[in-house]
Amino acid sequence: MEEGPPYYNKLFPLPVDHDNKATIFRPFSISSPHMRAFHLAWLSLFSSFFSTFSIPPLTPLIRRELNLTQADISRAGIASFVGSIFSRLAMGPACVLLGPRVTSATLSLLTAPALLAMSCLVSSPKKFIVVRFLVGFSLGNFVANQFWMSSMFSGPVVGLANGVAAGWANTGAGLTQLLMPIIYSVLNNSLNLPSNIAWRVAFVFPTAFQVATAILVLTFGQDRPISPVDYSSKREKNNTTKDDLRAVLFQGLKNYRGWILAVLYGVCFGAELTTNNIIAVYFYDRFGVNINVAGVIAASFGMANLFSRPAGGLLSDELAKRFGMRGRLWGLWAVQTVAGLLCVLLGRCNSLWGSIVVLCGFSVSVQAAGALTFGVVPFVSKRSLGVISGMTGGGGPVGAVIVQLLLFSDSCKLSKQTSISLMGAMMIVFTLPITFIYFPQWGGMFSGPSDHTNSPTEHNLLLE
C-alpha cells in the first residue's frame, strides 16, 4: 500500500521518495523544506484555533454586557461553524491552484480584522454573531495544513505528520480557554481596567498573533519540496487551464470515499468543535465553578490534542504497516466508536470530578479519531487531494452546525447533559458507513484487494 524504498537526495537533509516527499518524520527538527513546512503549518492553524475559540471562555462576561440570551450564544456558536464550512470547502481547490502557503496566509490576514472588531465594534447581539461568523472562516486553514503535510511527507509517515500537525495546532483551542481568562484577569486586576474594557482589550492579543503567523508563513514557507515558487512555475510549464481545474474538482466530488470520510469527520470533529464551544459554559452553569476553573477544565479538553491526535496518526501508520488499508479503516472505526461511548457517558455523569475524568477520555479518543480519518484521506485521490481534503475537512463544521441546531439550540428542550449523550450516540451510528469504503488496490474492512491490482488502470486509480 505504501511508497517504494527511500533514498537520499543531496538537496534534502531527510531521506525522500521519488516524489521528493520525506520518508521519515522528525518533529523537533527545523530542516528545510519538509520540517520547516510542518512547523509553519501547525503554527498557522494553531493561531486560527486560538482566535476562533478565544471568545467562548469570556462569554460569561460578554453576555452580561451585551445582554446575550442563550439563543444568541447558540446562534453565535453555529455562525462560527457556518463560516468555517465555506472556507474549508473553498480552501481545497485554492490549495490546488495557489498552494497551501499563499492560501493559508491570505485567509489568516483576511480574518484577523474580524477578531479585532471584538475590541471596539461589538455592541449588540447581532454584531456579536456576525463577528463569530467571520472569525470562524479562519478554521479553513485546517485544509491547507493537511494538504501541506500530504505534499511534503510520504505514505509510511503521512498519517503521523498529519496527526501531529493538526494535533499541535488544535491545542490552540484548549490553550486559549486557559489564557484568555488569565489575560482578562491581568488587565482587570493588575492594570485596573474596568471589566467591560478589559475583555475587549484581551482580543488584541490573539489578533496580533494570527497576523504574525501569517507573515511567517509567507516569508519562510515553501509549498512543495522542489521549489518555493512551485505552483506558479508549474502552472506556466503545464499551461494549466480552467478545464483542468474543473476536472480535478469533478474527480474529487464524484469519489464516494471522500463523502463517507466527510460524514465520519462530521460526527468526529463536529463533536469536538461543539464541545469546545459549550464546555466552559457547561461546567460554569452546571457545577457552579468560577470562570477561571471553567477555563482550565475546557483547556484540558483542547490541550489533549498535543498527544492524542499525533497518537491517532501514529496508530494509523502502524496499523497500515501490519494490516495495510484494512488496518487504517478498522482502527478509525474502533477509536471513533469508543469516543462516542465516552461522550454518551459524559452526559450521564452527575459529579464534577467524574465528568472531568470522562471528558479527558473523550477528548483523547475523539481527537485521535480525527487523525485516523486523515490517515486515510491521502490515499483516496492523488490528483484531487485538495478537493478530498476540503470535503473531509468541511464535514467537521457541517457536523458541528447540525449537532448544535438539533441538540444545543434554543429550540431544543433537552437538558445539556442529555444532548451531550445524544451527540455520542450520533457518533456511534454515523461511524458505520466506513464499512462501505473499498480500495481496489488495497481492499476494505471485510475484503482484500481485487484480482487485477497490477494492471495499469488499477495502478493509476489514485490519480482519479
Can you walk me through this structure?
This protein is mostly helical and 464 residues long. The chain contains 19 helices and 2 strands. The longest helix is centred in the middle third of the chain and has 36 residues, at 155-190.
For CATH, the homologous superfamily of the largest domain is named as MFS general substrate transporter like domains
Q: What is the H/E order?
A: HHHHHHHHHHHHHHHHHHEEH
- Summed up, the helix count is 19
SSE class: mainly alpha
Uncertain residue ranges: 235-240, 455-463
Outline, from the CA principal axes? globular
Task: Give the tally of β-strands.
Answer: 2
What's the story with the biggest beta sheet?
Answer: 2 strands, antiparallel
Overall average pLDDT: 88
How much of the sequence is in beta strands?
under 5%
Radius of gyration (Å): 22 Å
Report helical residue fraction.
over 70%
CATH class descriptor name of the largest domain: Mainly Alpha
Domain unit count: 2
CATH architecture group name of the largest domain: Up-down Bundle
Termini separation comes to: 17 Å
Major sheet: order of its strands?
Answer: 1-2
CATH topology of the largest domain: Growth Hormone, Chain: A
Secondary-structure map:
Blueprint: H1 34-52, H2 59-66, H3 70-98, H4 100-120, H5 125-136, H6 141-152, H7 155-190, H8 195-202, H9 204-220, H10 230-238, H11 242-253, H12 256-286, H13 291-303, H14 305-323, H15 325-348, H16 352-374, H17 385-407, H18 416-430, E1 438-439, E2 443-444, H19 456-459
Helix pairs in contact: 1-4, 1-6, 1-7, 1-9, 3-4, 3-5, 3-6, 3-17, 4-5, 4-6, 4-9, 6-7, 6-17, 7-8, 7-13, 7-14, 7-16, 11-17, 12-13, 12-16, 12-17, 12-18, 13-16, 14-15, 14-16, 15-16, 15-18
